[in-house]
């Protein structure tokens, strides 16, 4: 066996279900090495084509280890942007908003061709609209090194502690499910839904900001990604409840994700960490306040008893999850690149495409340590639907 490969041990439904029960609120969506059919992905068979982008197929190297992340100074490029967006939203660019508050589809421009000024505009407009969908992009065909250089403009690139990655490129987070992957069906043996609302790796001291996800192989139907606007979720709360949340902090944990990976005989590149973040954070470019909790990684509110913390967090999770009128649904198509601001959004994949390949790559620039600014009373807050 090659040293870059990890031994594959198939998990039966009973084992998979047991893993699903083990780690509390953490719901494992990743399929991992156990479900990866290397031969089928690289060569295909009589009924299935091989993967489109072999250079992006994941490997899991058990010998790959990384030290703890060190603090760094983040530069917020949205602060430098021309808010009229002359390059990003020029006269030849098509724009269609997914909803009034959340999400915009953009066509007629190549992300890879943006100048630094255009990238500044991208950072700001993503913060304002929360999630942008760019059609007919060449991003997937770029050399991986060029894609990473592009992402580095927006922050230090994050190395995921447990996911598969292209060989020699651990900073690329690969999202992959092969044609014969049954992990979504196995998850539904233990859960009623595959939806898993989260913001990425919020257990880090400096979680991601402007984030890029691009499609490599897309199912013919299904596999959409759901997004929720957590700034709008904050604005929907009553002033008194918003004020109560201010000053509260919560523990975010990566321990359960690492334990789940180990239980599946997968890898842990870096030992898991916990961090304490405010429940309400402020965006440095827009001044918007947003809820900053998610059921995947938020564990408890500091200083509250378990029952008190659980009650508040459950209310916030339900509020976020049921808020269809401040959510957007992204349907993937060949050439799509989705950009979102992880500081003010949550998202979830939908695992409703069994028997089809779904393959994406994520570039994940980290941002500043979450912070909050003083509570502001009033019905019109920064970033409301009536203006930014």
Topology:
Elements: H1 13-22, H2 38-43, E1 58-59, E2 94-97, E3 104-107, H3 116-129, E4 131-134, H4 144-152, E5 165-166, E6 172-177, H5 183-188, E7 210-217, E8 225-229, H6 230-236, H7 239-245, E9 249-253, H8 255-263, E10 274-278, E11 280-282, E12 289-291, E13 298-301, H9 306-322, E14 327-330, E15 337-341, E16 345-349, E17 358-363
**N→C terminal distance:** 55 Å
What is the chains' assembly state? single chain
Q: Characterize the biggest β-sheet.
A: 7 strands, mixed
Mean pLDDT: 91
What's the alpha carbon Rg, rounded to whole Å? 20 Å
The ordered string of helix (H) and strand (E) elements is HHEEEHEHEEHEEHHEHEEEEHEEEE
Overall 3D form: globular
Share of residues in helices: 10-25%
Computed structural class: alpha+beta
Summary keywords:
single chain, 388 residues, alpha+beta, seven-stranded mixed beta sheet, three-stranded antiparallel beta sheet, disordered N terminus, disordered C terminus
Q: How does this structure look, described?
A:
With 388 residues, the chain is an alpha+beta fold. It is built from nine helices and 17 strands. The strands form five sheets. It has a seven-stranded mixed β-sheet with strand order 2-3-4-15-7-17-6. The chain has a three-stranded antiparallel β-sheet with strand order 14-8-16. Strand 3, helix 3 and strand 4 form a beta-alpha-beta unit. The longest helix has 17 residues, at 306-322. The model is unreliable at 1-22 and 382-388 (pLDDT under 50).
């Amino acid at each position: 066996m090659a040293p870059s490969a990890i031994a594959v041990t198939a998990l039966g439904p009973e084992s998979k279900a047991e893993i699903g029960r083990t780690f509390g609120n953490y719901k494992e969506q990743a399929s991992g090495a156990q479900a990866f059919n290397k031969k089928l992905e690289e060569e295909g068979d009589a009924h299935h084509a091989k993967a489109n982008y072999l250079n992006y197929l994941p490997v899991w190297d058990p010998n790959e280890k990384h030290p703890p992340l060190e603090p760094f100074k983040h530069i917020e490029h949205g602060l430098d942007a021309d808010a009229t967006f002359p390059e990003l939203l020029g006269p030849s660019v098509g724009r269609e908003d997914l909803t009034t508050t959340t999400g915009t589809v953009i066509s007629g421009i190549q992300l890879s061709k943006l100048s630094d000024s255009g990238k500044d505009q991208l950072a700001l407009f993503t913060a304002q609209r929360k999630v942008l969908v760019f059609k007919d992009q060449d991003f997937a065909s770029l050399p991986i090194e060029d894609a990473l250089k592009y992402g580095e403009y927006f922050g230090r690139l994050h190395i995921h502690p447990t996911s598969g990655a292209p060989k020699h490129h651990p900073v690329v987070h690969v999202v992959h499910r092969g044609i014969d992957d049954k992990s979504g069906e196995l998850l539904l043996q233990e859960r009623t839904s595959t939806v898993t609302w989260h913001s990425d790796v919020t257990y880090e001291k400096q979680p991601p900001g402007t984030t890029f996800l691009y499609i490599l192989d897309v199912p013919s139907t299904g596999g959409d990604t759901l997004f929720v606007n957590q700034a709008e979720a904050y604005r929907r709360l009553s002033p008194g409840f918003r004020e109560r949340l201010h000053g509260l902090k919560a523990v975010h944990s990566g321990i359960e994700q690492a334990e789940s990976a180990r239980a599946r005989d997968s890898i842990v590149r870096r030992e898991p960490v916990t961090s304490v973040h405010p429940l309400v954070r402020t965006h440095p470019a827009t001044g918007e306040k947003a809820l900053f909790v998610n059921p995947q990684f938020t564990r408890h509110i500091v200083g509250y008893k378990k029952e008190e913390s659980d009650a508040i967090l459950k209310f916030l999770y339900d509020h976020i999850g049921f808020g269809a009128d401040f959510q957007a649904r992204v349907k993937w198509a060949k050439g799509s690149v989705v950009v979102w601001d992880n500081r003010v959004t949550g998202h979830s994949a939908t695992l409703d495409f069994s028997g089809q390949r779904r393959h994406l790559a994520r570039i994940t620039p980290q941002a500043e340590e979450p912070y909050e600014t003083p509570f502001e009373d009033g019905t019109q807050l920064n970033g409301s639907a009536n203006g930014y």
